[in-house]
Amino acid sequence: MIDTRINRRSVLAGGLAAAGMAALAGCTPAQSSQTTTLQFWHLLSGGDGVALQGLIDQVNASHSEFHVRPTVLAWGAPYYTKLSMAGAGGRAPELAVMHSSRVPGYVPGGLLDPWDLERLSALGVDESTFTEPVWSSSVVDGQLYSVALDAHPFIALYNTEICEEAGALDSDGRLLRPDNPEDFFEMCREIAGVTGAHGLSYGFIGDGMQMWRLFYTLYCQHGERMTFPEGGTVEVDEDAFIASLEFMHTLADGEITAERGTIDSAIAEFAAQRSGIHFTGVWELPAMQSAGVPVGATMIPPFFGEEAVYADSHSFVLPHQADPDEQAREYTYTVVADLLKNSLTWAEAGHIPAYLPITEKPEYAQLTPQSNYAAAADHLVYDPVAWFTGSGSNFVQQFGQIVGNPIVSGSGYEEALTRFRSYVNSLLAQPNPADPQGERS
Amino acid sequence: MTDVMASRSAAGPEPEVTPGEDSGGRRTSPTRGQASRRGQLAAWAFLAPFMAAFLLFVIWPLIHGIVLSLTDQSLTGAGGSFIGFENYSEALSEPVMWSSIGNTVWFTVITTVPLVLLALIMALLVNTGLPGQWLWRLSFFMPFLLASTVISQIWVWIFNPEIGAANEILSAVGLEPIAWLQTANVDLISIAIATIWWTVGFNFLLYLAALQNIPDLQYEAAAVDGAGRWRQLFSITIPQLGPVTGVILVLQMLASLKLFDQAYQMMEGGSSETSRPIVQYIFEAGFVGYRFGYASAISYIFFVLILIVGIFQMVVLRHRKADS
């Protein structure tokens, strides 16, 4: 009979073995005793996660003095909660990824440390190596708080074969870009005739983030921008607001696009080649390529006159450390510069590299369809700056609550505008909860 | 949901044993005082680890929470100055807080009733001696073993308005499709359906165990007296199941009031005004909005609500016991 009782000796032996395993797990073969470990938190999973890991491996392989150890956390609110708690405790990782749009909400709370422009510039990273919209999205109160790795705009993927059959391609084989809504709707109906299902895949039902991405693109195409002045009231153009919602309502007619498309069903539909165009983020491109869709990509056409695309950036930030190790911080600058300089690989994941020397390379020009929407970098619009806006914030969810019904039903636009105004104004009247007494700003 | 099982095992009353006396209450030896002191020491020694954990993880957070609720403490460490009952008055005048409480109570009603009735019906059917009992027991109980993340994923796809099975079934019987999780007032019902499917197995098991405890003798005697199947059901089975029904009701109401994980996951973190449960509102206030003080205040308002439900149930159950 085997004795399964637990005695003191077996517990001790087990404990020692576990401790040994833990010690072993802490080391990787490449590390020596002088190696500094740099903790790096990010929220990129799936194809993006694999691509970023490839970049990190490259950096680790070329430096023996430090080792970047990434930790992947769940996207959205949980990530930002953990990051802010780590920064609040002053024991944050050396480096983290944030959406640029979330940075302004973090700065007043003292959760981030600013980047030193001189150190960056010595490594070849400065204002001239980014487009204006990307650089200015990284600056808060005159200081640089984030260094963008990419821009990931909301774009149009298209199925080259289906669109060709529908006569929606130009002589170069690129998607036509109608400059008014009516022509675009007509084009989508033609495509729907080819697929027998829908012309366009766009999932928005129950998803404030998706609604906001397209809405703000359309709103800004009117030549308008929303501004959320702290302690003031929102400035929003009524006509552009309503015209954008009307556009979205017309899309969801059951022919152009599904009446009740969710983000998942839209992805599934385009991947199954049952539609010709897909309004989505650039990050969806690799998945479509591996699904075997003959896919092209372009900026969403300027339906209302001005080229404008909603975007956000994955940016590097220095979460606040109460007592930073200067050597580790020095290495962190090196890591960021190295990652930027290797970001051609990141372009393969669909993103537009933020670092201009990469997009100016001939190799990038040969990377299609990525290079076809590279021009979007000059027309990016980020979220209106406020402590409550940004990717995965409550603000976008609430926006979806307010405009969801009007988009589906095609009525109640005015009430939606009133509700939106009063919602934003009530937030503007509140202090930033990360710094309720304004003592850290 | 699984902590329901844990709390159940701890629910039974422990027999009281006084040190220094035997079970008959007689004095045991002349050195009773010493033995009693030693016994008490031993008792405290055994209690100490539990007491320490209880003080540290229950009592201290409880007090700390009350203190927090009176400040403007931020999750980021900023703030923290005393603001009196401002958080409470803000919460009580906040329509979203009330709608969240309303949603939670509504969810409790629409899940508790079917979860008790369905479990009873399922247990009765299985107990009548259907062939392949093990298969019924297994298939009714199995969903309960799944994690909330798994059931949420399954039901998100079932409820997908374009490609989900739920709308396939509706259109097969000639009904209009519904956006299950994206339509106001329907979303919480959809979450309730998924929850019922997920957790009914546990109540079913409790009922089945109780059914098997009713002596056959009673049914035989009733049969001899000429009682038919229905008569037996209403005069023997249902009354005999009274105590277990009470237990199930209490457990179920408490579990439903705590609604969070499946709702959060099925709504992908962004809930609507008609589906946001109070626990999610607390989470959003504290961990997404960084307002720790405010979130603490709402949790105490919710605490009072649960306390009222608990006291109400105790009174009703005691009343019933006295009746019987």
TrEMBL record, chain A:
Task: Write out the entry's keywords from A to Z.
Answer: Signal, Sugar transport, Transport
Write the signal peptide boundaries.
Answer: 1-25
The protein's superkingdom reads Bacteria
Q: Transport: is it a keyword of this entry?
A: yes
Q: Which Pfam families match?
A: SBP_bac_8
> InterPro entries annotated for this entry?
Bact_solute-bd_prot1 (IPR050490), SBP (IPR006059), TAT_signal (IPR006311)
State whether keyword Protease applies.
no
Alphabetical list of SUPFAM superfamilies matching this protein: Periplasmic binding protein-like II
- Put simply, this protein is called Multiple sugar transport system substrate-binding protein
Q: Which organism was this protein described from?
A: Nesterenkonia lutea
TrEMBL record, chain B:
Specify the protein's topology with respect to the membrane.
Answer: Multi-pass membrane protein
Q: Where in the cell is it found?
A: Cell membrane
Instruction: Answer whether the UniProt record assigns the keyword Lipid biosynthesis to this protein.
Output: no
Annotated ranges, domain ABC transmembrane type-1 = 101-313
Keywords of the record: Cell membrane, Membrane, Sugar transport, Transmembrane, Transmembrane helix, Transport
Q: Identify one Pfam family in the record.
A: BPD_transp_1
Family in the record: Belongs to the binding-protein-dependent transport system permease family.
Q: Which PROSITE patterns match?
A: ABC_TM1 (PS50928)
Bilayer-crossing residues are 41-63, 105-126, 138-158, 188-211, 232-255, 297-317
Any signal peptide, and if so, which residues?
none
* Spans annotated as Disordered: 1-35
Q: Which residues form a coiled coil?
A: none
Protein's UniProt name: ABC-type sugar transport system permease subunit
